[in-house]
Amino acid sequence: MSYLADVAALTRKDLRVELRARDTLPAMLLFVLSTLVVFHFALPEGAGDDAAYGLLWVAIVFTALLGLARAWVPEQEHGVLDGLVLAPCDRSAIWLGKTLATLAFLLAAQVVALPAFVLFFAPLDATALAGVLLANVGICAVGSLMAAMAAAGRARELLLPLLLLPLAIPLVVGGVGAAISPDGGRFLLFLALYDAVFAVLSWASFEYVVTE
Amino acid sequence: MIRARGIEKRYGRRRALAPVDLDVPRDAFLLVTGANGSGKTTLLRLLAGLAAPTRGSLDVGVDRARLGFLAHEPLVYRELTGVENLELFGRLYRVPERRERIGMLLERFGLWEARNERVSAFSRGMTQRLALCRALLHGPELLVLDEPYTALDEQGADLLDRALDELVGTRTFVVSTHEPKRLERLATARLALG
């Protein structure tokens, strides 16, 4: 119970910090909407819905990347990560709290972005939406760990995409597959499996990322 | 409480801390002095468990739940208020009767009136006082303080003097400073680095 209470306190803290600083969510919203507008004009007429679903995933991954690049900034200011690492709570709670907060920001951006996608491009059925939700979990779980690794280095803006994008490729494959394949359920299963494996790996390895 | 034999820290080829031996008994007050770059901060980070020695053996006789660390940086969130910061850390440290303890510390360090202001609006000295509250919040047995008087004005320094006077002899202290005069009266052991 105390583990979950720690996670809840850390997530609440991240949401409160963002509510006040407004550093991350407005940038994500602006980015995803402007990207969809650009894609709307860039996609040739008659390109078909399949291409549009591919572009949706480009927008989702890079929006998540934008949020993740800022995820650990509050902890870097004033060296707060050291303070969290010294606290006697399970260190994986720090990762889980950050993952849930980033997931909340990504979902908030998608609440605006997905209706815009439907308006500009193509409909999204329940399988496609389930694919987005499952891929969100994977991106945020792996991304929070990679962002913590990148934050420790000097060139985090460069390092994070290099670390995250190769790991996000299966999520893009699964997400696009869920949207366009007649057998979308198989892709949802694949995404759920990815989430389970990478969430456990990230949860277990976070401690080694933040300690020497 | 602390026993170190030949602990050394290197970052690549650069040596951040030359080999050090330490024996700090319980309830002692170790004053660590040295010029800039002599390794004071590195030694304190090793003792706090935030870094591992490259060579040597180190045994700190408390776990991190019973260790209070004051760093160069205040380790508090800029966008949270003083109370919210202490509430968060109090929860993570499982501080019993958290509200009362937080109120008492904020009063003691003259931050009660500013308790609901964001840290980003604090002066550097107020932020340092809040950092001291955070380090003392869970009543640690071992206090590792890196330049605790940094940024404190005379009033803040007097408040810290009083807090240290109360705690000396009942806690173990490792304190670094480049102005040892103020702490000389409390020290039971000294270590000069560099």
How is the main sheet of chain B built?
5 strands, parallel
Q: What is the name of the CATH architecture of the largest domain in chain B?
A: 3-Layer(aba) Sandwich
- Report how far the terminal alpha carbons of chain A are from each other: 28 Å
**What does the oligomeric state look like here?**
heterodimer
Instruction: Compute the average pLDDT of chain B.
Output: 94
Cross-sheet strand order for the largest sheet of chain B: 5-6-7-3-8
Protein architecture, described:
The complex is a heterodimer of chains A (212) and B (194). Chain A has helices spanning 2-21, 25-42, 49-69, 73-76, 80-86, 92-120, 126-152, 156-180, 184-210. Chain A has 212 residues and is mostly helical. Chain A has one domain. In chain A, 45% of the residues are buried. Chain B has helices at residues 40-48, 82-92, 98-108, 124-136, 154-167, 181-184, and strands at residues 2-11, 14-24, 29-33, 55-60, 67-70, 142-146, 172-176, 189-192. In chain B, helix 2 (82-92) packs across helix 3. The mean pLDDT of chain B is 94. Chains A and B meet through helix 1 and helix 5 of A and helix 2 of B.
Notable traits:
A: 212 residues, mainly alpha, 84% helix, globular, B: 194 residues, Rossmann fold, five-stranded parallel beta sheet, 8 strands
